[in-house]
């Protein structure tokens, strides 16, 4: 949805700048010591942590979880200082002492159980709990038992999701609504929510960790990309989410920072019906694709050429990847007709389809394109109606782990198996990866599963997307997080205005 401010921007840039400036100056004391941030999307559920709005609370460092993830995706302490797996379905978490919620109440096992129970009862459930039955109970004032119906080696990772942030009891209403105002544990306390317009946070002086370096955060929602870029260019914002590629050339290079995303554009090839059930023709497509041309032409160089399903947002993937040798010899296409499909909701994908069609035609295929809105094409793609489908796909979901994505897309029973793949070697590799505990063994098993998938030529990874983040010159230590969980932290600071 476009806000009135964003519509003004398209025709009256100066008016927009004035409006943004007045918005940021509202309700501020000592504005020079406050971070002004422009967010891409307004909240959809009143900033409830049980929705996708949870990622805003996380990016503002106001709501915290029991566990956090490091750069490798391994669980690390946050509100829980330690955890133990007592048996296949039961974990014990020890809580950090002397933590206060923003309303002054202490962090206790009772508060944690109440927050996790509210998440399990939410309608709809938080995405991180899809297919998971979870029950929390106290085991003393500072420890919690979490039980799952089925063995879940990823439970600590799951509890790192911003959708399972722990808020004070007062946040949870009897009607299932959650109000995060003054209810978190982070270095910033959410003090004011102005609907889908703005939000304001102040430093929380009784934070359990190091005190925040700025007095507060003033967040404004600006869906229009030109407007967000204007806010950075004119100095009315300190940090800006998701700058459009088209605006980058208008900004000083020092203010623009590219962050690799755990999102891969992949060409899925139908392994069950049509000409591409022949693995040798899938190999021909694999070898015909010029990834560098796609990156340079469509993305203006602001993406990464794919070497596998997992990209630079997971830095360990490249270090563990070994060259994949497909057992299938590449065939020489003889004019076989294939349907190449994608969706128009992401502006780059139809352009990628045009270039890919050209490359495959040059390789000897006859290519017909089918481009529609995602809502109109998803069912046909999942039903296997297309020979080839271009998809922009998140490779790590809320747990920070790629096994769920791989299982969904490439297992026999996968709910998103566009390639219609059912391969015994892939099944065995995915099963081993799913059973492994987080850490080096799981990462090795994940890369073995990636190799098994790529050997089938059911998927041709094309490129890994980046998000472009804007930061004013006076900003120090803003987070550039591929998972988009962190943005402004207690360590983020502002130098004096030049």
Q: What topology does this entry show?
A:
Blueprint (H helix, E strand, L loop, with lengths): L3 H8 L1 H13 L8 E6 L14 H6 L7 E3 L5 E3 L2 E8 L2 E6 L13 H13 L12 E5 L4 E6 L6 H4 L29 E7 L3 E6 L12 E6 L3 H9 L5 E2 L4 H4 L7 E14 L9 H10 L2 H8 L4 E3 L9 H6 L16 E7 L4 H16 L2 E7 L1 H9 L5 E7 L8 H8 L13 H12 L4 H16 L3 E13 L3 E2 L16 E2 L4
Parallel strand pairs: 1-10, 1-11, 14-15, 14-16
Antiparallel strand pairs: 2-3, 4-5, 5-7, 6-7, 8-9, 9-10, 11-17, 12-16, 12-17, 13-17, 18-19
Keywords: Signal
InterPro entries: Peptide/Ni-bd, SBP_5, SBP_5_dom
Organism: Deinococcus malanensis
Describe the model.
By secondary structure, the chain is an alpha+beta fold. The radius of gyration is 24 Å and the shape is globular. The strands form 4 sheets. Strands 1, 8, 9, 10, 11, 12, 13, 14, 15, 16 and 17 form an 11-stranded mixed beta sheet that branches. The protein is 29% helix and 23% strand. It folds into 3 domains: 133 residues, D-Maltodextrin-Binding Protein, domain 2 (3-Layer(aba) Sandwich); 105 residues, Dipeptide-binding Protein, domain 1, CATH 3.90.76.10; 207 residues, Dipeptide-binding Protein, domain 3 (Roll).
Q: Using the alpha-carbon principal axes, give the shape.
A: globular
Which range does the strand content fall in? 15-25%
Give the CATH level 1 class of the largest domain. Alpha Beta
Number of strands: 19
Kindly report how far apart the N and C termini lie: 36 Å
CATH topology of the largest domain: Dipeptide-binding Protein, domain 3
List low-confidence stretches: 1-19, 21-31
Radius of gyration: 24 Å
List the domain count as a whole number: 3
Estimated helix fraction? 25-40%
Helix tally? 15
CATH architecture of the largest domain: Roll
Please identify which CATH superfamily of the largest domain we are dealing with.
Dipeptide-binding Protein, Domain 3
Structural class of the helices, strands and pairings? alpha+beta
Q: Estimate the mean pLDDT confidence.
A: 90
Could you describe the largest sheet, including whether it forms a barrel?
Answer: 11 strands, mixed
